Amino acid sequence: MNVHASSPIRCPGTFPRRGFLQMGASALGGLSLTELLRREATASEGGRQSDKSLIVLWLWGGASHMETFDLKPEAPVEFRGDFKPIDTPVAGLQISEHLPQLARLGDRFALLRSMSHESNGHVNSTHTMLTGYPGEAIESPPFRPRHPDFWSVTNRMAGSRRDGIPPHVAMPRMRYNGAAWLGGSLDPFVVSADPNDGGFQVPNVGLGELPTARFDDRLGLLKQIDMFRRAADTTGVMDSLDTFQRKAAGMLSSGAVERAFRIQDEDPRIRDRYGRHEVGQRCLLARRLVEAGVRMVTIDFPCVPGQKAFSWDDHASVWNIFDEMKVRLPVLDQVCSALIEDLASRGLDRDTLFVVTGEMSHTPRLSNFNGQPGREHWARTMSVFLSGGGLRMGQAIGSSGPKGDEPIERLLTPNDLLATMYQHFGIPLETQFLNHAGRPTSVLPSGRPIEELVG
What we know:
The protein is of the alpha/beta class. It has a single domain, classed as CATH 3.40.720.10. It has helices at 17-23, 25-28, 33-43, 77-80, 100-103, 122-131, 150-158, 212-232, 241-254, 256-261, 268-274, 278-292, 321-345, 414-424, 451-454, and strands at 3-4, 53-58, 85-87, 94-96, 109-115, 168-171, 189-190, 296-300, 352-357, 361-362, 367-369, 372-374, 377-378, 382-388, 395-397, 399-400, 407-409, 432-434, 440-442. It is globular, with a radius of gyration of 22 Å.
């Protein structure tokens, strides 16, 4: 059994206040090169287990399975809703009529239709889905998990796929995620800017026109910042200043990350295929990043043009679920089908697993607020979409009852999905870390890789 502990705390000295203030947000906020390289250095402790990659499209708020991937046309009217299912090339596999482009690709995806857990708040549901430990997230600020999430564990154990490339890029940072006792050094490289914006750029990832003298100054300042970080760090994860600075110099001069983010260089026809909107260009950027060597890319599905909703949290008290789904689902259809076909055309689909999920679903029984239909929180039955990664596609695994309210065949938990994803990266499920109390804690308390996918 592998038990990993943090490095001893070191205090190299103090950081000059004037230099710290001069650096400001350009290096310490958001998209700092220092943060990127510090995380990469920390993650490398775990060694590289595979060359696999992962793209997750996160449907925050919880997409209703009854309108997307598990429709119930024969259910009573108070359950089935307004939408009808349509066929795919796979016999018996149907999805929503508002996902026609995805329906054509039925042999290239798999659906988990019996995913179930007991956490119904957005925070603790996210914790359950991403850590495998239920009911451990605090439903108040700062909304950070009490156990390391999947991203931080994979970052720690698998590290970067290529030198100078961040292990995890988040567009933007996903809600309620965190590394808990593994330390903030494993947080993602965050891209908050809209890649559909004509002026889109990611700062602090290249030299550009920086003169040699200023480049030397930059490296010296990086060293000072690194010393400050290490002095303030309570996790003991920063262990080699010399190595860190070499990586800083290498990345500043290589331009590999800068090229990956240069989405304006992409063929306009491919950009059109993904859609000239924020989520479409985020998905295209995800492909570019994976192709450049990023291990994990997470995409938060944002608002789309013409949509009142700011999430998939379709309560009757806030908006009409069917009106919003009619705007939202065509975008989901476009970006998912484009990404699946694009990955395949570039030979990336076997090593890249694409997952579409949120933290929960919504109630099979419709609710009504002053004549406005909606659905409330529900996690006892939800659907998860997967494509690629060398897994077995063209199938639906598990099923829910005729009203969509309970799993009736092949009950699956978030831990089974996480175990499948850990196996994708070659991370042993018996891996343990020492928590804040110094106790060995498993990356998952239970769960097994889903045999129908990996067998």
